Amino acid sequence: MTEGEAAPAAVAAPGARNLLLRGAVALVLAPAAIAIAYAGGWLWITLVTVASIGLFVEWLTIVGEAKRTPVITSGVIGLALAGLLLALGFVEVALIVLMLGLVAVAWLTPERRVWAVTGFGYAAAAELASVLLRLDPVQGWTALMLVLLVVWVTDIGGYFVGRGIGGPKLWPRVSPNKTWAGAIGGFAASLAVAWGFSAFGLGKTSALLLLGSALSIASQLGDLFESAVKRRFGVKDSSHIIPGHGGLLDRLDGFVAAVVLAAVFGLLRGGVDGVGRGLMVW
Fold it and tell me: Which of 45, 48, 105, 173 is 20 to 30 A distant from 122 in Cα terms?
């Protein structure tokens, strides 16, 4: 083998190992997340609250405000207390606490205040939306699974189709690895999930296809948004807490955008106690 032939193999090997690591970690985390989501209640709210706190801390790390202890403390307390109140059923009080947390973060941040406030609002929206969607006793589990599966297949389909076909970049200045082919592949995969839900009698086909489309687009936009923030501050990964995947922000950016859209839509149609039904029942 010549030196020129050995180089591509040497380059490809780390990529293959990283793909195997990503796959192995996903095979552990995905079933665990599904099991906790199915259990609901305190387990799900605890997971969501911990994840939201992690999102907030990682966001502050990216924007360079993580060293300000009062900012982190006020945000973490607000998210943790809101999670406890949500678990106890005090949704309105939890919302007030999150608003007070937002004010505290803004007041305690002398620099990059807009970025810190945006980070807390991002984490708070993720927490509130994820909990409200699952709280629906009738359709909460189904609605949450639709969001999770659409986000996952959008990501997986986009990755493999993008790498397999290549072609024009989606937004090279923000995310140089994403292609239009990958975006379309992920979108098509989300339609397959939506159709699968309708095939099992979990909703009307036309409505589910529209939902799948909207959630997939939201997921991809959420991914691009997080990439744009990291690029703005010269950061590659939000952290290294998840082997092969980076940080919580890197893994949950698409889910946050999709679940917030789903919760807003479900809330408008079904009210606080029927967010899942508002999303799934037509």
Answer: 173
